[in-house]
Amino acid sequence: MNMTLQKNRIYIPLLLFLLTFAVSGYFSTIGIDPHHDGIMFKPALDVANGKMLFKDTFSMFNVLSLLIQGAALLIFGKYLITIKLCNAFFYGLISVLVYSIFKRFLPRSVVVATVILWIFSAPYFLWTFLAWSTVYALFFLLASLYFLILSIEKKDKKAFILLSGICAAFTFWTRQNIGIVLCLMFMAFFFYEGILRAVSLKESIRRSLLFLSGLFVISSVIILWLLTNGALNDWWLQSFVHPHLWSIPVTQNYTFQLILQNLFPVTYSQSPVSLWFLMPIITLYVFLKYVIVSLYSPKSVSARTVLACIFISIAAWTEYYPIVCYRHVYWGATVMFGTFALFVYHLAKDISGPFTKKSTLITNCLTILFLLIVFYPEVSYRITEGIKKSQAQYTVLTAPSVLQGMRVTENEADYYTRMASEISSFLDNNPGKNVINLTMDALYLTFDQRIQNIHPAYVNLMFLNSDVYPAYWRTYETYWQKNQPLIITYGEFVPPGYCKDIQIPEMYGTYLVKPC
What we know:
Blueprint: H1 2-28, H2 36-48, H3 64-76, H4 80-102, H5 108-119, H6 133-153, H7 158-172, H8 176-196, H9 201-228, H10 232-251, H11 256-263, H12 275-296, H13 301-317, H14 326-352, H15 359-391, E1 395-396, E2 407-408, H16 410-429, E3 435-437, H17 463-468, H18 472-483, E4 486-490, E5 498-500, E6 510-515
Parallel strand pairs: 3-4
Antiparallel strand pairs: 1-2, 4-6, 5-6
């Protein structure tokens, strides 16, 4: 029996990892988004090529995700598919952490079913797979939660609290909005433990200080690295000023009504009642239930563990705001999949308990059945769309080299191939010349390694560039007047003295213009 349990401890998470990696990895190779893929791939490629993050390149998603992806490019090759598969790898790690956390208070069969439902609720069945920073942030968030739970369960708590602080720091340095709220939730949980007398007030303060120590050490090292490389100011502008300015029109100045609409969305769901609306509601209900339990049994390990999950889930929940879409609700609800399953499990237990001696088996079966019924509209829709996507006709790209292995439609393949060919031809025929980008799509700047950044902001995010870098437009205008580069532009904007290159089929409203 012990041998069987030991094997389950290894094989179940391993199989979940392999399933997640196989599914997400498969869809990661289908489709290219020149804007979102460019936002992540271009700075990672710059870092892999020795450029300094923020000072020499542009990133509005903090430090660590770009360092992870830059390292992947150095190890596995400088291709877009590399960072996508790296992201899929972290999806696999997330599934292992979700399983490892929730098996503590749910039957293994229920947790396995929950993780599988999470896998098949993913947005990449419907939309293009993005190698997004939130995935790395979720991994570190769950790791911080895992170590927090170990600190509740084990006698030697110090190391686990310190590791929680380190992982929380990594969360912040991959996705700043999640990281800030995560740190606040840790402080709130430690304070709650002290008030509740689950631990002494002295112990609560000690736990808080240990957590902050881990947070401080990692953050100090990264800030010192940015400072000594002259990138600290650009980090602040790109990671905080830029997102804040971007969010103002999106959030309508942070109105309370919009915040509620985003945190409790009724859209992007195929269920009669939006699953993404239901999960936060149920999680809040479970929170209140376990608060009451903890009032009567403040030292209950199971109650403290569940409450820890819910406190930390609030940090992930912030991904709902300010944009609600298939991607953001999925990422934001990841931890809530477990708390939702816990609610369903207790409901099934109440139903099955009085009627049978084999209530455990019946409860587990009922829980899985209820979960399948609730998730069926979402999962069946994604599987149907995923099958359609997998059966479509694709061309595997061989050029440009950075897009090797990606599968796109025939028209997209022709577009990317000809765009890369024109860029390389211009640089071949005009030694010493450069290419600049006036669109929102940084991907094109990766097509030839001879292209040099003339400014950290190499994507045109409209008014945001000028608000963050006041000299942005003047720098670019002076550069094209003086140096006559090839320009990637959009809409009807053609600078004086330039002519449109009719060799490139228009796609995404983007085309090339050359000096006449």
